[in-house]
Amino acid sequence: MPLKIKSPGDWGIERVPGEHRVMGRFDFFVLWSSLGVGLLVLQAGVFLTMPVESYGFGLGLLDAILVSLAGSIIGSLLLAVAGLIGEREGVPTMVSLRPSFGVLGSYLPTILNIIQLVGWTTFEIIIMADAAESISGIDGSSSIWVVVFGVLAILMAVWGPLRVVREWLEKFAIWLVYLSTLYITYSLFTGGVSFKLFGGGDFSTYLLALDLVIAMPISWMPLVSDYNRFSRRAGEGLVGTFSGYTIANFWFYSLGAALYFLYPGETIVKSIATLFFGQLALLLILVDETDNAFADVYSASVSLQNIKANISRSIYVSIIGLISIILGLTIPIVEYENFLLLIGASFVPVVAILIADYFIVRDMEYGDEDLYGNKKLSVASLLVWLMGFIVYYYFAYVFPVVGASLPTFILTFLLYVLVRKFRGV
159-211, pLDDT tens digit by residue? Predict the structure, then answer.
């Protein structure tokens, strides 16, 4: 007898009951490959090959492909490992920070997460509106589309992740976006476009470009357990998340890097639209793009429940969606690259602390006292996080020679383990 799909219960900060943990490897592969594709990822890929004088990295296409592959593997592995904690414990990501940061201490990354999710939702709504305006051919209609896509994100977030994955992504959206992306890839590489294969950047340029690729999966880390907590068995989400996101992130960063050469200086939307049947391909990508905005709105509401658990998720969803619509109507897409790097600065050390705490310090087990006890604030964890943030900023902006993400992760991880072992848990 087939499972009757229901919207997830509004458990807030509580562990998801075992009977509601029903998602398997394929569900997670579809979800995270779908979240790993999108117009914003393509736009981020443009920075890899965009000239330095235009605030890009100036890589050649082959260089960009290699950087995209390495960054996707590293970032997706960190994402999947962080999600494994949610699989095992059945709690959202922000709640899983409580044992290491304390209840009050977890509020700071929670607030930053909510801010970044509102930003991501706004960016998604704006770029979908621009694409819809291009497809419709109606100049000046983007404001209407901002409202349409904002409302759609709210409705999908109320609908819930299980329904979105099984009723929308698995049956329709993911296959449409795969088809359209294959067509765009084929058309681009057989259309006689002149690609610059190798760039002239030094080693530090490649490492900073690697940071940009890693920033995308890292930006999903604060959300990962909001979905992977529904895994029916620990490890299924790990496999599905890593494989799905690695493939999608690599493909779209590389494709974005290649699309730059089609019409340099134009937006991704306009470049795709110039291809034969490009408008149709763009429409199919747009169909799947809605799930990214959904995930941002849904997880922002789940994060808010870490601070105030007794308010319905639907109310939070409506508030977050409304704020994003207003921002989408009033701000342009600017400083996108810096936005991604700031996300890395905030959450790379958070990932390091979370993984170190769960897998090294606490031997892969959080009890109810760890998650819901009276431990209010861990000053040591906050100081380690601050040190990690400073390290990231230093290597990204002051001494950009060795890259920022990997040194920050390694140093924060080791520092946290040493502090905990010295002070005791």
Answer: 888 889 998 899 888 998 898 899 989 988 888 777 887 776 677 788 889 98
Beta-bridge partners for 23: 231
- Spatial CB neighbours of 206, under 8 Å, sequence gap ≥ 6: 59, 63, 67
How many CB atoms within 10 Å of residue 192?
6
Q: Which amino acid is at 300?
A: A
Q: Which amino acid is at 308?
A: K
Structure tokens at 167: 């009723």
Q: Which two tokens stand for residue 266?
A: 């134009």
Tokens (6 digits) for 26: 């394929």
Lowest mean pLDDT among 26-40, 158-172, 242-256, 339-353: 339-353
Q: Which residue has the tokens 């897998």?
A: 359
Residue tagged 């909001």 (tokens): 226
| Tokens (6 digits) for 289 | 């793009």
The Cβ of residue 363 has, within 10 Å, a number of other Cβ atoms equal to 7
Contact 195, 38 (CB under 8 A): no
Q: Which two structure tokens, joined as six digits, stand for 47? A: 């920075």
pLDDT of 199: 74
- Using CA atoms, how far apart are residues 212 and 345, in angstroms rounded to an integer? 11
pTM above the 0.85 mark? yes
Which residue(s) pair with 231 in the sheet?
23
Domain spans, the chain: 22-423
Res. 336 pLDDT band, cuts 50 70 90: low
Which tokens in the block code for residue 91? Answer: 């709690």
Percent of the chain surpassing pLDDT 90: 51
For residue 98 the two structure tokens come to 């409580």
Q: Token pair 């509102």 is at which residue?
A: 118
Spatial neighbors of 129 by CB under 8 A, at least 6 apart, are 142, 143, 145, 146, 148, 149, 328
Give me the sign of the Cα torsion angle 31, 32, 35, 37.
Answer: negative
Q: Find out whether 423 and 380 touch, Cβ atoms under 8 Å.
A: yes
The pLDDT, as a whole number, for residue 344 is 64
| Distance (Å, whole) CA 249 – CA 9 | 30
The Cβ of residue 238 has, within 10 Å, a number of other Cβ atoms equal to 22
> How far apart (Å, rounded) are the C-alpha atoms in residues 61 and 67?
10
Residue 329, C-beta contacts closer than 8 angstroms, at least 6 positions apart:
143, 146, 147
pLDDT for 52 equals 84
Give the pair of three-digit tokens for residue 157: 């977030």
Q: How far apart are the first and last CA of the chain?
A: 47
The CATH H-level (homologous superfamily) assignment of domain 22-423 is Hydantoin permease (1.10.4160.10)
